[in-house]
Structure formats: C-alpha cells, structure tokens
Amino acid sequence: METGAAAEVITIDMVRRFLDRLADVLLHGDFDGYAAMIQLPFVVQTRRYRFISTEREDLHKSFDLWQRTIEVNMATALIHRPLRIECFGPDSLMVDYDTDLLCKAQKVLPTFTNWMMLRRRDGVWRVEQVLAGVENAEPSLYLRVDPANPVPQTETYVLDERPKKS
Q1: Contact 30, 78 (CB under 8 A)
Q2: Which of 30, 71, 72, 165 is most enclosed, with most CB atoms within 10 A?
Q3: What CATH number does domain 12-131 carry, 3.40.50.300, 3.10.150.10, 3.10.450.50, 3.20.20.10?
Q4: For residue 145, what pLDDT is reported?
C-alpha cells in the first residue's frame, strides 16, 4: 500500500493487497520483504507473551517462527482475511483479520484472529503492532493455536449501552 497522495482513500482492496503481500513474503522466506513491511519498534503481543523488536535483526525471531511453522507443516498457502478496518486519520489504520495456514487444501492450524496497527510514513504503509491469536511465549519453535479457543468470543459495545443481563 504505497502512495504519494496524502488524501488517499483507504479501501478493502488496499488492505487485502497488503495482507496478501505479507503472506507472500512469509510463505516464500523473503526476510528483506518482511522487514520492509515493518515499522520499528515493532510489537507482537500473543496470548502469553510480548515480543518487542527494536532493531532489524530482532525481526528474525518472528520471521523465523513463521518459517519453521511453514516448513514443518509443509504449508503451501497462507491466507489473511480482513474482517474489519478502522481508520484513525489518513495515516493510521487498525485491521482485524483471520489467518489460515494450509498444506494444499487442508488447514494445518485452526483459523486464528489477529489485529494489526498500520502507519503510513513517507507514503509507505508499515505494520507497527500486532495482537496475534496464537499462544506463543519465548522461546517457541512453532506457532501454536489453542484448538479449543482459536477465535475467542467477542462482544461489541457502543459507548455505555451494554446488553442487559437476564
């Protein structure tokens, strides 16, 4: 999602292209492509641990975790599906998305939901933070998803209008 226009309208297709490019660099082991999509410092929060990358070399931890997971599962496809996009001005964007890792047409992990914060600087969108639906803590060899609870139940509240308990 690169642009020279500050007033560019954010579209679902732009977000899909960004997520597809992220999946492509991970699936094909392109660390330079991955690093170019990340804004440092980069924070990944899993259900059990918080990873902070302050230098380009630090990004290898998250990249290598994906690479080991892809390799051991013989993954042939990585699918990110945007669920919700929320803009915070012209240069900040929050995306909720689901992830599937497939070997041929078979899921090798349960679908898991993630949230990412993107920022545009100098016309280039980069990921600044990710809340990942995985359970990984340090050190982890492979991505782990709780099969009993891959996509936690959520409720949406508008202001203070919460559902009444019965």
Answers
A1: no
A2: 30
A3: 3.10.450.50
A4: 81
